[in-house]
Amino acid sequence: MKEVSRISRQGPVFESATKMYSFEYPNYWNMPKKGGKHAEMGKEMQAQCKRAKVEEACSLSVMNFENPDSLFGSFISPIKQEMFFREYWEQKPLLVQRNDPLLAAYYQSLFQLSDLKELCSQGLYYGQDINICRCVNGKKKVLNKEGKVNYMQLKKDFDQKKATIQFHQPQRFKEELWKIQEKLECYFGSLVGSNVYITPQGSQGLPPHYDDVEVFILQLEGKKHWRLYKPTVHLAREYNVESEDRIGNPTHEFTLKPGDLLYFPRGTIHQADTPLGISYSTHVTISTYQNNSWGDFLLDAIPGLVFDSAKEDVVLRTSIPRQLLMQVDTADSTKKLSSLLRRLADRLENTRELRSSDMKKDFIMNRLPPCLGCDSDPLTPGGKLPKIDSKIRLQFRDHAIITVEPDQENSDEIRRDMVYVYHSLKNRRETHMMGREDDTTSEEGTSQTHGLRFPLSYLDALKQIWSSSTVNVKELNLISDEEKENLALSLWTECLIEVI
Fold first, then answer.
1. Which H/E stretch holds residue 297?
2. pLDDT for res 21
3. 16-66 pLDDT, tens per residue?
4. Helix axes 294-312, 334-349, angle to 10 degrees
5. What letter would DSSP give residue 493?
6. What is the Cβ-side half-sphere exposure of residue 162, based on CA atoms within 13 angstroms?
7. How buried is residue 155: exposed, middle or buried, by Cβ count under 10 Å (0-12/13-18/19+)?
8. CA distances from 179 to 72, 212, 213, 325 (A)
9. pTM
10. DSSP symbol at 372
11. Is 414 helix (H, G, I), strand (E, B) or coil?
């Protein structure tokens, strides 16, 4: 690896240097197979990798939780958000190496090996909360026991079997991770999960693989040796293990220490181990954008577009050819389908409302609630009741959505469109990213959402509230004062507005 040029300035107490590495994938198709000594591989990588390096000294503060934008800015600091999305997001990895004792201490507070004893006493289960695994001959070997996790057995597997402890979704237990991930979900508009990996020295938990999520690695304790490889599937839609003989030599190799951050796009092949001489390594993987692509959005939005278009376009209501569903070769129908898709595209350009109810509801129903602190009481309406002469303000804007969809409470063949306001204020942090279980399903077994239902005539008034910093109840775009008051009172009972 080439040496990094240092630009530094003294802080009042200590020098805090931050190194940013911009990774470029080599511009060739067939990567050479892995082989040769470590030193030779390092020289080969220098020739293959075009790596721009910038080092900047700065005294980094801990996370800025003022709003989602400021949180993400501090999360990837010192790189600017505009540069991150222009040059790295979904394109190439970014390594930010920091020498900041305050940030390193903050990272360590997020999760530590010493936390496991107390957490195990809360009743953790193998498979659900914790996995024990080790990479053996390029394959993942799972060493889970049955039922509840016993701390002494866990420690024994860690010390004697050199097994990696994978802790699922620690934000359910660690408040600071809850704060970070809740703000990141607001920032991305996508679910944000996390896993902690604790690996003893000279060991590796997982074989080379790639993921279907955008990944941010925060090194919390010890050091972790990483190797990244050229993707075989760019922006992969699923997790997959890759064999050593298929992936070739690493394109990038480095060691993370506490306070360092690594980002890489979905599809990036990677593996990591704890070097000898380091007692153990702890890092947290924060991930997002699973099944959140344009393709996913089209799958969600096109059915509603077709349904609405067919109401007005008789061509979409004409029958398909006889026996089309019985044919093996449907090539003759592709021209007709192409013509219909062009009609839909023309209609789409003139459509104000594009329905994406399922993706929106899935996000709002499964995301974290606002982080108000572990000891805070559940949200309840407070302050003045809204009246016709009240001025109101939307609360928790990032935790609520408005959708237009067929009336869910009307089973008649003709179903009117209704306006639904869904929110995540009553979601349970304890079940975040753990599947639809327990309180997330009703007695009938269907998924529950929290929110309100209004006639379609309320849509403009709701948009008015959502788009304004404050609004007078009497100025809402509804016909009667009674409707205006009812709308304000309904939102107030769900803690979505406050009277100012």
1. helix 294-312
2. 60
3. 355 556 554 433 222 233 344 444 444 433 333 333 333 333 334 589 999
4. 90
5. H
6. 15
7. middle
8. 12, 24, 20, 52
9. 0.85
10. -
11. coil
